[in-house]
Amino acid sequence: MDTYILDACSLVAMLAAEPGVAEVRNIIRRAYRGNTHVSMNRLNVLEVYYGLFRSYGKEYADDKLEKINKLPVVNIPDINNELFKSAQRAAYQFNKLARVIYNEISARARNLLRTESPQYTG
């Protein structure tokens, strides 16, 4: 059985019918039939969601996220819905997604995660 790992660009290609969409859709069809295994890092899903939210608003982004979540794709690692809500707040405030992700990971790791970059702290 073939195994594929999709990135954010693959997902965007599929959602927006961009170049490469035929190949991505073929992989997804094969996964529905059980002929291939497809994984995607949940951070890539978050990245796409954040971009859609900033560009098109909450309703559109939520609709696309619902469709993404129904795909036969194993999400790795599991990121809870609270991080998606944090991304929404960040989009409203024009904060960088990287800061939201850093803050969430840092909180989960009990502040064991360190960086010297001011854009991710404080």
Would you write up a description of this structure?
This protein has 122 residues and is mostly helical. The chain has a domain at 2-78: 5'-nuclease (Rossmann fold), CATH 3.40.50. The chain is 59% helix and 11% strand. The chain has 6 helices and 3 strands, in the order E-H-H-E-H-H-E-H-H. The protein has helices at 8-16, 21-32, 42-56, 58-69, 81-92, 97-108, and strands at residues 2-6, 36-41, 74-76. The chain has a 3-stranded parallel β-sheet. The longest helix has 15 residues, at 42-56. The N and C termini lie far apart (46 Å). The model is unreliable at 111-117 (pLDDT under 50).
| Average pLDDT rating | 78
Structural class by SSE content: mainly alpha
Placed side by side, the strands forming the largest sheet appear as: 1-2-3
CATH structural fold name of one domain = Rossmann fold
Which range best describes the helical content: under 10%, 10-25%, 25-40%, 40-55%, 55-70% or over 70%? 55-70%
Q: Can you count the beta strands?
A: 3
The CATH homologous superfamily of one domain is named: 5'-nuclease
Radius of gyration of CA atoms, rounded to a whole number: 16 Å
Under the CATH scheme, which architecture of one domain would be assigned? 3-Layer(aba) Sandwich
CATH C-level class of one domain: Alpha Beta
The coarse silhouette is: globular
* Percentage of β-strand residues: 5-15%
| Largest β sheet strand count, sense and barrel closure | 3 strands, parallel
Distance between the termini: 46 Å
List the total number of helices: 6
Q: What are the low-pLDDT stretches, counting only 5+ consecutive residues below 50? A: 111-117
The helix-strand sequence is: EHHEHHEHH
